[in-house]
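hiii, so i know i said id send this last week but things got crazy w the move. better late than never?? heres the sequnce for the chain we talked about at the cafe, plus the structure i predicted for it. fair warning i was half asleep when i ran it
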Amino acid sequence: MSSTPPTTMPPASTAPAAVAVPATAAATTTTTTTTATTPSGAGPALTAPERVPVERSKGINGLDKIVLREVRGSSAEVYLYGGHVTSWKNDHGEELLFLSSKAIFKPPKAIRGGIPICFPQFSNLGFLEQHGFARNRFWTIDTDPPPFPTGTPPKAFVDLILKPTDEDLKIWPQSFEFRLRISLSPAGDLMLTSRIRNTNSDGKPFTFAFAYHTYFSVSDISEVRVEGLETLDYLDSLQNKERFTEQGDAITFESEVDKIYLGTPTKIAILDHEKKRTFVLRKDGLPDAEFVFL
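okay and structure toks below
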């Protein structure tokens, strides 16, 4: 059994893709929003008089980072190393992403946690290093991006771009432009939109896989359930990727889990009863979703 095949990219074409959960293949259309909601009784957060929506500064070990802020208090932190979102906080200042205490902010090691970018390979399904090389390359700020199909952008956003180095071309001989927009809406929704363009001068198409390998911050797995994956087929990575069909209603967890769900809907919800928090994932363009609880 195998997961969804990688996407073949013809020359001079663009594949936009955005999702907040891992997927095994890239796609052709997208805009994706990830929302975390809290109980209405929590009350509004205090609003600062004035917030700079986009700020560039130095992060851990002197690595460049971008901080996005919205007026109500939500924020996101993006490192240029890996094009990596390392923090996303709601308007109460609560961290919504998990970042390992063992995370090493030192190239060439990938940052562990947050939202790593998997490209041009997902997992070990290929001849490249685990999850490809995009997550441990230095991205640059894209000062002149082409129009994105997301309407009027919010004030808090940054456009990044990655192009292959000479060393990259030796291990994966394909020319490309990977453009990534990371934005934060006034309501605190986090949106990632990716567009991958084939720039091979010889007209040669290439095949690649792509994922946002998001680490969400949740409580004990016994308090978490996932809605939207009922009755779907999945590949169980703990059983040699054998294919099964999910049974029952909302998915709950009692032990270690590593499953790749196939043909998932555009909306998936992660409910955390202990933290009284719900993540609503809206995606377009990436058909599969992997859930891992360790």
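btw The chain has a mean pLDDT of 83. thought thatd interest u
miss u guys!!
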